[in-house]
Batch of 2 targets.
Target 1
Amino acid sequence: MKTPIIIINFKTYKESTGDNAVKLAKQIEKAVKKTKANVAIAVQAVDIEKVVKSVDLPVLAQHVDPDDFGGHTGKVLIDSVKKAGAIGTLLNHSEFKLSKSVITKTIKHCKDKNFEVVLCVPDSDKAGSYAYYSPDLIAVEPPELIGGGVSVTTKDPSIIKHTVEKVYKVRRIPVLCGAGIHEEVDVSKSLELGAKGVLVASGVVKNKDPYSETLSLIRGLSVLNV
Ligand code: G3P
């Protein structure tokens, strides 16, 4: 994925599930087509195929498991979501925490299968320690700010700077930030603080006008003249 980027996580809201996932993706695509912005969406595994067929946006899974074909009831295979059209996945979201061994194994499997990983972490220390495993992007999100109305860029700007510093000490993996992002200034501020984009959910998904909200977030990227 190219940066700077906005990744919109559909989560499991009613407004972003099933047919609504397709409708929402089309609104987002309409906003993206007016610009040259990089915008990806992370949708539920069962919605990937129909969303991929409906819009021209990079689509991510929200989670994958490190299992191969075989007896693994209920697991989400990298091969399956890739076949459905996903180009990568979120991993270790605060709402779907994984152990270190599962995270490192999954990153390795994704790399082997040429499948991108956006690793979510709750703080800068974890970001620094997981940078050694080379996920494609690292997204820092303070869990207590997720789903709220106050952006991480306002409430905890230092976490973004510290995360970038700790990750870059290991290697230059682009860092995103997320939690409470809902307006243009949240995106521009995140870039000023050293992030290469944002991870956002409710600001777009729960918005009455996701098209205008997406456009407004995209405007926040213009600090880098995109
Ligand atoms: O994955 C993005 C997310 O956790 C942030 O959620 O609703 O605060 O934008 P939200």
Target 2
Amino acid sequence: MLVTGTGETSSALKIPHSSSHSSSGKMLQTTAYHAPLLEYSNELLRQPANSAIALLPPVVDMSSSRDEVCRAILDGGKEFGFIQVVNHGIPEQAIRDMELVSQEFFQLSAADKAHLYSEDTNKPTRFFSGTTFETGGDKYSMNTLRLAYSFPNGDSSNDWPSSPPRLREVAMKYMELTRGLGMELLRLLCEGLGLRSDYFEGDISRGDAALSLFQYPPSSDPSMTLGLPPHCDRNLITILLPSAVKGLQILYNGDWIDAQSVPNAFIVNFGLQLEVVTNGILKSIEHRVVTNSTVSRLSIGTFIHPTENCLIGPADEFLTEDNPPLYRAMTFGDFKRIYNVIKLGSSLNLTTNLRDIQENI
Ligand code: OGA
Ligand code: NI
């Protein structure tokens, strides 16, 4: 079914369950939540990025049966590299508290944030602004507070800011809940893919996790100013709390498509390490953040990482004579170093195919 988005605007939002969109697994909707979902055609998706057509990353209802959830994650993830999860079990209060302390942090005076400011990308916990990514003269309108969480018990949180006063407590709880959700999604992926269920339990997920609070201020010229440049996430999996303000765009068939989320959903995307482990069955898809001229946008990302020394390559389960490894195994530390070099100093430049990058090494 292909509809134009006009004439049916009164229908309630239909959250597609895995069973209800099995024929294509792909849905579009117009920019308003309550607009009808549209099944996409390539023609529609080829419209300019600022058109009224938005991609709704496939919705995975985690209260469905385990089999259905597994299938929905795989179907949606294989097609887009992005899904959004609802009924995920994370209390709404924990989410609202996290948004509130994030807003409070960004409202602190510049002087109160100055001691946290650093452009040293090796510093695990720091405050930085878009200037960190200023490559080739591009400007990025973005401020970030990055909080590192080390294992086994989050000791590095002693470095987290002590102001606003509730930040440490709220962020710690939020980090543990969202990281738990990420680990559950990884277990579900294992089940769906036929990997042993503890595949992601060890070093591959126990590097320092990061909780990043992003503020994208409005810009005077959004057509010239991005919030984040096109990139793929280099980690294993990312759990993003998107804002009601749109801004995240996903590359699909060569077009930038607005990602739109339903209330209380987390947007989840696969990092490059998942692409490597699954030998390309799952793809890490390029995305970016655009700005607008009127409102600030806040988003919060939880990033699950491997340890620096963890060796990551395609899992044996996916390799046969007909399916040779498409990626080389390397430690996560080497991956980041090499990926940075190949990307001319920034992991955040327009990404070419990961396979091509590995061929150049
Ligand atoms: C990222 C990212 C998106 C957003 O930090 O890797 O893609 O909406 N963030 O902030
Ligand atoms: Ni990203």
